[in-house]
Amino acid sequence: GKGGSKTDAKTGAVAKKPASGPQKNEDARKALALALETGEPVFGRVEVANRGGLILRIFNGRFRAFLPLSQMASSRTASIKGRHNHTLTQKLRTGPRSSFDEDDEAPLPAPVPAAAAPPAPGSPAAIAAAAKDKAAKDNAPKDPVVAAMELQVGAVISVMVTSMDDKKIVVSERALVQDQGAKALKVGMRTSGRVVSLSDFGAFVELSATDPAAPRLEGLIHISELSWNRISHPRDVVRVGQEVDVKVLDVVLSEDRKPARITFSLKQLQADPLLETLDTIMPVAMPEPSVDEDELLDTPLPGLLDICANLLTEDGIDAVIPGRQAVEQRVVSQDLELWLTNVVVADGYNLLARAGRQVQEIHVVTRLDRDAIKRAIKRATSTLK
After folding, report:
1. Which of 300, 311, 357 is nearest to 334 (CA)?
2. CA of 258: how far to CAs of 77, 176, 213, in Å?
3. N or C: more exposed end of the chain, with fewer CB within 10 A?
4. How many Å apart are CA 191 and CA 216, to the nearest integer?
5. CA atoms of 14 and 291, how far apart (whole Å)
6. What is the rounded CA–CA span in Å between residue 13 and residue 2?
């Protein structure tokens, strides 16, 4: 046949001739542009590593793409940093020890020999000097970051094409993980992961590589979602490397090249103090207090009387009656905390006041609903701050 096709002599079917090299390159270029547009995953094999990232071969090796270190999944960068830190530790352990005795006199500097004239280019001496310099470079210790990165050579990584021009193709593993995972996660889901970094405003958690919905997706636990108690820094609750169970609070899908954002909560998988009953914290059959506990029970909780007086000024509250007292085994907070319990009471609500190890029940007689009593409590306590 003509025009790059041939006819089967038996069936009469026309088969296309395989595409030529230039045609294959053009098809691959179109597929690359489509991957950039749609965000579909692309597989690449690591060919070269340097301090800035990895060079991948994508589309069956037809294109070279750059994967920056900042665009790798946190678990991958953590393994690289871990090997880097291990190398530094080994260097520190095996490094020479110097004496810093203050009584030792500093040695006199050795005389500096006069610089020898450089050998003539092409001479045997110049050739020997160049060979010596090359051998020194070859035997010099490799940059620990590069050495750690080079362990990735040969690995196959799934990435997303994020930019391309005539000179460079840039890909991201992180963007692909976030994009795919965000589409699979649902608000309210419970999952688990590992704390990969801390900041002043929260803790970043990467889900397990075996997570059925969003493997290696990274999300933020805001500092306000780490604990029911007030904390000054995330390190008060979690540490890097710690495994945690989290609840998905919010999912924002990627849009206009902005990466997907996911927020988690740690505290919402723990008992909510506002919903705890008094009996959860102290038993109904209260033990006889020791001498120290007896002294604590005789000490009024700081600010509690003022709060009770403020509550009595609220419309709809008929009475505020102090109830049982107890002493806890541990200090929860030195500041006074006032919680609304979920004990069902016919004529109102039970509150729980705590400070240090002291606990006291307060019965509020009222016709207000739960939201209204919460607002009243907030107003009554705000004047003490």
Report:
1. 357
2. 21, 12, 21
3. C
4. 12
5. 101
6. 14
For residue 51, report the phi and psi dihedrals to the nearest 5 degrees: -60, -30
Cα–Cα separations (whole angstroms), residue 313 to 102, 163, 306, 336, 360: 73, 64, 11, 20, 21
- Residue that the structure tokens 């963007």 belong to: 175
pLDDT in tens, 221-261: 999 899 877 788 999 999 999 999 999 999 999 887 788 99
What is the distance between the alpha carbons of residues 341 and 362, in angstroms, rounded to a whole number? 10
Burial 110-144 (b: 16+ CB within 10 A, else e): eeeeeeeeeeeeeeeeeeeeeeeeeeeeeeeeeeb
Q: How does pLDDT run across 70-125, given as a tens digit for each residue?
A: 999 988 887 776 654 544 444 433 333 333 333 434 445 555 555 566 777 777 77
Detail the DSSP E strand segments found in the chain.
5-7, 14-16, 42-50, 53-58, 63-68, 156-164, 169-172, 190-199, 202-207, 218-222, 243-252, 261-265, 317-327, 333-340, 348-356, 358-366
